[in-house]
Amino acid sequence: MRIDFHTHIIPQDIPNFTEKYGQDRWPVLHQTCTCGANIMVGGSVFREVTDQVWDPHRRIKDMDREGVDMQVLSPIPVTFSYWAPVEQALEMARVQNDFIADTVNAHPARFLGLGTVPMQDTDVAIQEMDRCIHELHLSGIEIGTNVNGSNIDSKEFAPFFEMAEKWNVPLFIHPWETMARDRTPRHNFMYTVGMPSETALAAASLIWSGVMEKYPKLKICFSHGGGSFPYIIPRLDQGWHVWPHLRLTSHPPSHYIDNLYFDSLNYDPLNLQFLIDRFGHERIMLGSDYPFLLREIPPGKVIDGMDSLTAEQKRFMLGENALQFLNVKEKKINHESTSNVSRGKAPSPGN
């Protein structure tokens, strides 16, 4: 199977929280035509989108044309709303989590889903994670790289990671509210420079702080090939060696990278080969960032074109690693997806 792990979705009828709560930081979907809309933030266009971002039938047509068997659906990070009062952010999260679960249930042979939680309140985040996994039967949780400027290694988030490990909940970490935003508005550097740097900071924080040492069974995937993180690991190690007074772990940072996962979205076979050499092909999952402009088209193009990879390695990276990461029973999905096409039956993902 070819599974696109990194795709985003938003409900077409998402409520206008700006009108409801009077804040201008809420993302508002302003439809411009039957097949397009603008995501507005503070009265300005944050992103132009098409019906690909809300219509599962349009997505399935694209998937069929591009050879994708399944997509893993996750919220658009601008909707995280960690800045908002927790009750309002929880409402935003629940609208999206219910929509993603409904989409998965309506098309179980084509979609798996990740939920979102209001990380500004750890107790509420844990409660919503519990609902996502154990009631909605979503396959994991997407969180941002920071929470209102606090790195995700901050002590207040430890109970969240503890429960994610206990419940074996896969976490997808995606950049948002990126660092140096005052220096990156020109040239869209927020997307091309800020996001990779933001992801590196989040990954380094979780490792250096001891979160990965304390919760060694955590399942975490970093988006965009981990950003710049894979390339700074030796520098992190050097810092650990020369600054013993700053050490919070028993071993240097590189000791804790074996359990990390990454999507494949770095566009270049040289970079992807470096990622494979550093972490192993078993830790890399096809991800395209569908349906946005920076996505890889068709999904898996770089993996497909790498002669250095065996057919088995490609098979794992294109699909099987995602099923393993998301705790989905591969054989059941494969068999029942085929049966679904031929006999109208739906697969049953196992969490």
Distance between the termini: 18 Å
Mean pLDDT: 93
Given helix and strand content, the structural type is alpha/beta
- Unreliable runs: 334-351
Which outline best applies? globular
Strand content: 15-25%
Annotated CATH topology: TIM Barrel
Helix content: 40-55%
Report the total helices. 12
CATH superfamily: Metal-dependent hydrolases
Family: Belongs to the metallo-dependent hydrolases superfamily. ACMSD family.
Organism: Alteribacillus persepolensis
EC number: 4.1.1.45
InterPro entries: ACMSD, Amidohydro-rel, Metal_Hydrolase
Topology record:
Layout lengths: L2 E7 L7 H5 L6 E6 L2 E6 L2 E7 L5 H11 L3 E6 L10 H21 L4 E6 L5 H13 L5 E5 L1 E2 L2 E2 L6 H9 L4 E4 L14 H20 L2 H4 L5 E3 L6 H14 L17 E4 L5 H11 L4 E2 L15 H4 L6 H15 L4 H14 L8
Parallel strand pairs: 1-5, 5-6, 6-7, 7-10, 10-11, 11-12, 12-13
Antiparallel strand pairs: 2-3, 3-4, 8-9
InterPro entries: ACMSD, Amidohydro-rel, Metal_Hydrolase
GO molecular function: aminocarboxymuconate-semialdehyde decarboxylase activity; hydrolase activity; metal ion binding
Keywords: Decarboxylase, Lyase, Metal-binding, Zinc
Tell me about this structure.
The chain is built from 12 helices and 13 strands. It has 351 residues and is an alpha/beta fold. The chain has one domain: TIM Barrel (Alpha-Beta Barrel), CATH 3.20.20. The strands form 3 sheets. It has an 8-stranded parallel β-sheet with strand order 1-5-6-7-10-11-12-13. The protein has a 3-stranded antiparallel β-sheet with strand order 2-3-4, with no helix packed on it. It has a two-stranded antiparallel ribbon with strand order 8-9. Helix 3 links the parallel strand 5 and strand 6. Helix 3 packs parallel to helix 4 (122-134), helix 4 (122-134) packs parallel to helix 5 (158-166) and helix 6 (189-208) packs across helix 8 (229-242). The longest helix has 21 residues, at 86-106. Residues 334-351 have low confidence and may be disordered.
